[in-house]
Amino acid sequence: MRPALPPEVFEPATSRLALVPAHVGVISIAMLAIIDGWVPWMVWPLLSIAIGVSMSCLTFVAHETVHGGIVRNRTVRHIIGFIGFLPFMVSPRLWAAWHDRVHHSTANVSTDPDTYPTLAEYHSSLGMRIMVDKFAPGGGRWRGILTLMFGFTGQSTIQLLQARQRQYLKPPAFRLAMVETALGIAIWTTLAIVAGFVPFLFVFLLPLIVANAMVMAFILTNHSLSPRVEINDPVVSGLTVTSPAWFEWLTLYFGYHVEHHVFPAMSSRHSKRVRALLQQKWPQRYKSMSFRKALIRIHRTARVYKDAVTLVDPMTGREFPTLTPSDLSPAVE
């Protein structure tokens, strides 16, 4: 596919660096407005939403930056990654290992750290059963809201704690990742002391729920409706979700996930070019769906794999087919 695309789409989108001070500014001003009482308390929930949206947008910027889509310099990538992932206290060092290196090479393969379990894994692991039965979305049960509210915070914490065991990070890198995480915790703890409990609830805790929800809504739809695979094939294992133009722009086209897995280091601003090429070359394999429909399907289906192309709800026994090339039109909208 690379020869069919112009060379400029593979250049870093450095203008997106301007999004960092823009979102940091929104967050800072809204926080000060709450802490210093610039606005009446009735406005605080609206400011919390604004903070949470900007936190999630910073995460999307960090994601693209650490991949190399915005700037190539490693030091700058690390700094932007730290700022962008700070709301979740995720070390950019951990993210580069867990997400960039491991997930991108094993998406929906058995060794993918982000995939939901097989039925055998579900039955053999108490932790998996608790995660699926108490928190995972699916089966029409509204408990899945918990995953939206806290999922990325929980997932990143688990990945940090398992980074040594899964050999994502060597001991020196793991220690640095722990230091970076501790620094993030110290920053938010200091803010809590300065702000006081009630303002902190509105400047961080509620915004963090908003940010979790925005990030997790995409993470869930990226792969959780698609089949397990034996080799890394992003056209089969991924799903692109489309949204209104303003929302796609705000979230840096993060829903174009098949395109991202094909060219991880490319800025997502070029995703639609890659989408057109995928639809041209593999019209019977490429999968796309509206964000709304994908979230509804996440809510109604199951999260455990009975086999590579079948999802099963262990609590009810109901089965659901994954989204596979054989039963989809070129682009499900």
Provide structural commentary.
The strands form two sheets. The chain has a three-stranded antiparallel β-sheet with strand order 3-4-5. Strands 1-2 form a two-stranded parallel ribbon. The protein has helices spanning 19-35, 44-67, 74-85, 92-105, 119-124, 126-135, 145-162, 171-195, 197-223, 234-237, 245-250, 257-262, 271-281, 291-300, and strands at 240-242, 288-290, 304-307, 310-312, 319-321. Strand 3 (304-307) and strand 4 form a beta hairpin. It has one domain (2-327). Mean pLDDT is 94; it is low at 329-333. It is mainly alpha-helical. Helix 2 (44-67) crosses helix 9. It has 14 helices and five strands. The radius of gyration is 20 Å and the shape is globular. The longest helix has 27 residues, at 197-223.
Structural descriptors:
333 residues; mainly alpha; two-stranded parallel ribbon; 14 helices; disordered C terminus
Q: TL;DR?
A:
Helices cover 57% and strands 5% of the residues. It has 14 helices and 5 strands. The chain has a 3-stranded antiparallel β-sheet with strand order 3-4-5. A two-stranded parallel ribbon has the order 1-2.
